[in-house]
Amino acid sequence: MPKEYIYSGRDNIASVTFTQDGSALNLTNTTRVLVQFEGTGVVADTDVSTPLVSWASGAAGTLQFKLGGLGLPVGEYKATIIVFDGVFTNGQVLTHMNAPDSADVLKFQVLN
User: Fold this and answer.
1) I need a surface site. Which of 36, 81, 84, 87 has the fewest CB within 10 A?
2) pLDDT, average across residues 63-78
3) Helices (H) and strands (E) in the chain, counts
């Protein structure tokens, strides 16, 4: 997974495309997204603030993150991304901060 950048206090968007077996995931029926940041207790939840994550960008499997207003301190954070829809009502983990293969871990770098 790539490292994405969050600019504290800014409106920059970080886009990440999620795939499974080489094909982009179908996120069209997504109802909620949670983003948890390792070691912070900070959770971005679209049930609380809709603009934090968008999945209606038109690109299959792509989530757009607008996280500059979360107040995360400068640093690098591993993230867990959980997506909910009518099939995965308890959530489907797309990436986990404790994944054994570091290639499967999404990281966000917070900059001023």
Assistant:
1) 87
2) 96
3) 0, 11
